[in-house]
Amino acid sequence: MKLAAIQMVSGTDLVRNLADARQLLEQAAAQGAELAVLPEYFCLLGQHDTDKLAIQETQGTGPIQAMLADAARQLGLWVVGGTLPLRVPDGDGQRVFNSSLVFSPAGQCVARYDKMHLFCFDNGRERYDESRVLQAGSQPAWFDLPARDGHLWRVGLSVCYDLRFPELYRLYAREGADLLLVPSAFTYTTGQAHWELLLRARAVENLCFVAAPAQGGQHDNGRRTWGHSLVASPWGEVLAQQAEGPGVVLAELDAQQIAQRRHQLPALSHRVL
């Protein structure tokens, strides 16, 4: 299966971001991708954390979801919409879920994952606390993708900071996941230190492919994200990567490689906890 991890440098203009995302999805489809995954916050990286509250949508309606559904249907793609802000039912509108939605080539939303682990970081120069505007999700989520080659791919969903919590990915491995998705907006500081290390570790320890589309560059709000969108093999090899700037990172995923590696090193069957 050919996968496209889409890297963006999203700004403060929702309409422009959606147009940029659509263009990149078109490039992915033109290059033969079956599955295209957008990065976290693909629709907006505002001047303030609270800016995302103004564009929050109810699941099933809104311009962000309409763009994703239309792109999936018109391009014949499986599309994972990085993350977008979804309304908290019965909430006061001051917090949203940071949600990853999956659309089939029919344009139907077939899965939803709400980011469970909320990023908090303070090194004296940079300060982030997503819990000020985000509501944490409570459930893992995965979906099955029937590829053109006949293999049924089980795909586990996660977002950015989730990457630091290996128990989530082990749960997906127990459920038979072949591919783990990690749409992200890693800071330059933490990305430089840990991004590739963590992604390759999640691939190796679960003997799964890992695809991590990211925000990568200097944004309108002055923030710099690490980028380096990549796809890793079950053996921890980096199959494709792009350092910075918008682009489509393509990789061919071979399901037989998963079976081969798990036969050679049956670590998943050796778990004692």
Task: Offer a few descriptive terms.
single chain, about 270 residues, alpha/beta, Nitrilase/N-carbamoyl-D-aminoacid amidohydrolase, about 25% helix, globular
What's a quick, concise take on this entry?
The protein has about 270 residues and is α/β, with parallel strands linked by helices. It has a single domain (about 1-270), classed as Nitrilase/N-carbamoyl-D-aminoacid amidohydrolase (4-Layer Sandwich), CATH 3.60.110. The protein has 5 helices and 16 strands.
Which structural category fits the helices and strands?
alpha/beta
Adjacency order of strands in the biggest sheet = 5-4-3-2-1-16
- Note the beta-strand portion: 25-35%
| CATH superfamily grouping | Carbon-nitrogen hydrolase
Number of helices: 5
Total number of beta strands: 16
Architecture blueprint of SSEs:
Elements: E1 2-7, H1 14-30, E2 35-37, H2 63-75, E3 78-87, E4 96-103, E5 109-114, E6 120-122, E7 127-129, E8 142-146, E9 152-157, H3 166-174, E10 179-181, H4 188-206, E11 209-212, E12 216-218, E13 224-226, E14 229-232, E15 238-242, E16 247-252, H5 255-264
Parallel strand pairs: 1-2, 2-3, 9-10, 10-11
Antiparallel strand pairs: 1-16, 3-4, 4-5, 6-7, 8-9, 11-14, 12-13, 14-15
Helix pairs in contact: 1-2
Account of the protein in words:
There is one protein chain. The longest helix is centred in the C-terminal third of the chain and has 19 residues, at 188-206. The model has no long low-confidence stretch (mean pLDDT 97). 25% of the residues lie in helices and 29% in strands. Helix 1 packs parallel to helix 2 (63-75). The protein has a single domain (2-270), classed as Carbon-nitrogen hydrolase (Nitrilase/N-carbamoyl-D-aminoacid amidohydrolase, 4-Layer Sandwich). It has helices at residues 14-30, 63-75, 166-174, 188-206, 255-264, and strands at residues 2-7, 35-37, 78-87, 96-103, 109-114, 120-122, 127-129, 142-146, 152-157, 179-181, 209-212, 216-218, 224-226, 229-232, 238-242, 247-252. With 273 residues, it is an alpha/beta fold.
